[in-house]
Design a protein that fits this description.
The complex is a heterodimer of chains A (360) and B (294). Chain A is an alpha+beta fold. Chain A contains ten helices and 19 strands. In chain A, the strands form four sheets. Chain A has a six-stranded mixed sheet with strand order 6-7-8-3-9-10, sandwiched between helices. Classes of the chains: A alpha+beta (360), B mainly alpha (294).
Chain lengths: 360, 294
């Protein structure tokens, strides 16, 4: 899994006027790797992607392509494939022409792109044949063959997305960047597309960078997840490590379907001895109701969600807690008093600066 | 049911009646008159069949007006559309870096559109005056021979065409600016990633095709206005010298309202009407077929 870095940001900073969109970000995208850049909207992740692609220029720092400085290279020179959130298909061109466009722009001169150029000069014809073969191969791979003559406006959202994927992958890109590829799709299509993108990554072997605000996309698809908060990358690691060992209070609060409970030091000692000195975080899923639990709480309300029930609790010192009960566990009555505990490995400790402290 | 029908009729009726009385009926009368030798004020007329049309297309004067109009349009349409696009591209390009300058220039280019053309024509007449006009004085300053802009038979039509271009560039520019603003910026990003380096490729891959509907609309509007050229001719040259700047609408005015030859003027009107109808039909056909992306 540790191939050579293909595309890297080296202490990259991007300012727009006085606002800093991306601050001192270093990120490697290695050979054959699937990285997810995860962050809330407006955190600078799309800007990071544009810096990598060459659509925006860094204000400070460098962009490296296979170890060589590519900071001043254009998007075309970096040969990065990019799939846009809006797909950005050319509306006036057919699916076939859309997919062929990157090849035409790279292989044909302005004059050779004129209609009829192939009739006048044989080499142009050979180039066009090569382009044609490549377009048809990628179209077959993405099941687009029956749609080649259509215009993007005549396609469904999912079909448009496959065209955008085909256009990005038709040439041999150095890396493939995907900007929120799933956010315009409905739930069912989303799950299918996740699998499809995973499969594409396996078959093509290109380094993939997925930019997303959706943690389940990031955790389920990527080999490594980079968490971005306020223009900085605060943690990089495997999905498991980012989820199980969040490096800071901010990451802990961001990752997880249910926001992590934060118990201030003092009362937290009821859960774990280290709670005397550090704030403790416990995911709602990890709180268990046990008769001998040391953390007392009142049940304020209970919400039934099908597979799970979410309890809103009030603990010692009026701290707000939430607990998730899985499956058929009996839900305690509203207003009742319950006792909670958590296993030591489910407890995360954070120091006064919000940094993780290992307590195992 | 009856009540609804009555209400519908009351709502539609007046406008429909006005349309019939003020548009369809006059058109029908004009078509009928074009087959007669009717003169304004005359008490009777004779049927002359296609005689008026034969006069228009057969006589030297009629053909001259038609050809002059076509030459005028052949200059004004491409020049005005091309310059309008060029100016719009330029102003759109500098709108991010120097928005104030862009806004001021936009207003300057649009001024001729907003101004009354007849008043502007008088101004042009002064500028183009053979001895006192600024244009010739500048030419003299540059060491070039002065020209008789409005009284040289070989030059007058081109002078009027230049003024026609000057007058319509601003309008086309505004339409093109709106078209440019509607192009999604991500398409330019996509083109950059796909390998469109430099302005030329970007223009042909994104800008030009995305401006397709705008360009067609601009062309049709410019064409309709070019074929209708009248004010500058009427105020500056009266079709002269020696009919060198006689155009179809000016000929219509002259035959109809100076010589009162209503029959002949009606024939010119019908030809003019048919040409504009054809232009509109082409627009609709092409718009539906080629430029619609959805």
């Amino acid at each position: 899994m540790t191939g050579k870095p293909v595309l890297s940001l080296d202490h990259a900073t991007k300012r727009f006027g006085d606002t800093v969109a991306v601050e001192d970000v270093s990120l490697d995208l290695r050979e054959g790797e699937f990285v997810a850049l995860l962050g809330a909207s407006g955190c600078g992740k799309s800007t990071t992607l544009r810096l990598l692609a060459g659509l925006d220029q860094v204000s400070a720092g460098r962009v490296l392509l296979r170890g060589a400085d590519a900071t001043r290279d254009t998007a075309a020179a970096r040969n990065v494939a990019l799939m846009f959130q809006s797909y950005a298909l050319y509306p006036h061109l057919t699916v076939y022409q859309n997919i062929a466009m990157p090849l035409r722009l790279r292989r044909l001169s302005v004059l050779e792109r004129l209609p009829g150029a192939a009739i006048l000069r044989a080499p142009v014809g050979r180039k066009l044949d090569a382009i044609d073969a490549q377009v048809r191969r990628i179209a077959e791979m993405l099941r687009l063959d029956p749609l080649l003559a259509r215009k993007p406006g005549q396609l469904s959202g999912g079909q448009q997305q496959r065209v955008a994927l085909a256009r990005a992958l038709v040439r041999d890109p150095s890396a493939f960047l995907l900007d929120e590829p799933l956010s315009n799709l409905d739930t069912q299509l989303r799950a299918d597309t996740r699998d499809e993108i995973r499969a594409l990554h396996k078959t093509t072997g290109y380094p993939f960078l997925l930019v997303t605000h959706d943690q389940s996309d990031a955790l389920s698809m990527a080999d490594r997840v980079a968490v971005m908060i306020d223009g900085r990358i605060v943690q990089v690691g495997s999905p498991e490590s980012v989820f199980k060992r969040p490096g800071s209070r901010a990451v802990a609060a961001f990752i997880g379907h249910n926001r992590m409970n934060m118990i201030p030091s003092g009362p937290a000692a009821a859960v774990h001895p280290m709670g005397a000195r550090f704030d403790l975080g416990i995911r709602p899923e990890d709180l268990r109701i046990t008769p001998d639990g040391a953390l007392d709480a009142f049940v304020e309300s209970a919400a039934y969600h099908g597979e799970e029930s979410i309890l809103s609790l009030r603990g010692p010192g009026d701290i707000v807690l939430r607990a998730v009960l899985r499956g058929a566990a009996s839900v305690p009555d509203q207003g009742s008093r319950i006792h909670l505990s958590a296993s030591p490995e489910a407890v995360h400790a954070f120091d006064i600066d919000g940094q993780r402290v290992e307590i195992a | 049911m009856l009540r609804r029908a009555v209400i519908d009729l009351v709502l539609v009726g007046p406008a429909a009646l006005a349309l019939v009385v003020f548009i369809f009926l006059p058109v029908a009368v004009v078509v009928v008159l074009s087959f007669t030798d009717y003169q304004f004020g005359a008490t009777r007329f004779e049927w002359v069949g296609l005689g008026n049309y034969a006069d228009l297309f057969g006589s030297r004067l009629g053909r001259n007006a038609l050809i002059n109009t076509l030459v005028y349009a052949a200059i004004v349409i491409p020049a005005s559309v091309g310059l309008g696009l060029l100016v719009a591209l330029g102003l759109h390009g500098i709108a991010h870096t120097v928005p104030r300058v862009s806004a001021v220039l936009r207003a300057v280019y649009f001024l001729p559109v907003a101004a009354t053309l007849v008043a502007m024509a008088v101004a042009w007449q002064m500028l183009l005056h053979p001895s006192l006009g600024l244009v010739n004085q500048w030419l003299a300053g540059l060491g070039l021979p002065s020209r008789q802009w409005l009284s040289d038979r070989g030059l007058v039509l081109y002078t009027l065409a230049a003024i026609g271009v000057w007058q319509s560039v601003g309008y086309n520019m505004v339409l093109f600016l709106a078209g440019l603003a509607a192009i999604p910026p991500t398409l330019y990003d996509a083109a950059a990633v796909d390998g469109a380096e430099g302005g030329w490729s970007r223009f042909w891959v994104v800008t030009w095709p995305m401006l397709g509907p705008t360009t067609l609309f601009v062309m049709i509007v410019t064409a309709a206005n070019a074929f209708r050229v009248f004010e500058t001719v009427a105020t500056m040259t009266q079709g002269g010298p020696a009919f060198a700047s006689d155009t179809i609408v000016y000929a219509l005015y002259r035959e109809g309202f100076v010589y009162f030859k209503a029959g002949y003027a009606s024939a010119i009107t019908v030809v003019f009407f048919a040409a504009l109808l054809l232009l509109t039909a082409i627009q609709i056909a092409v718009v539906e077929r080629r430029v619609h992306y959805r």
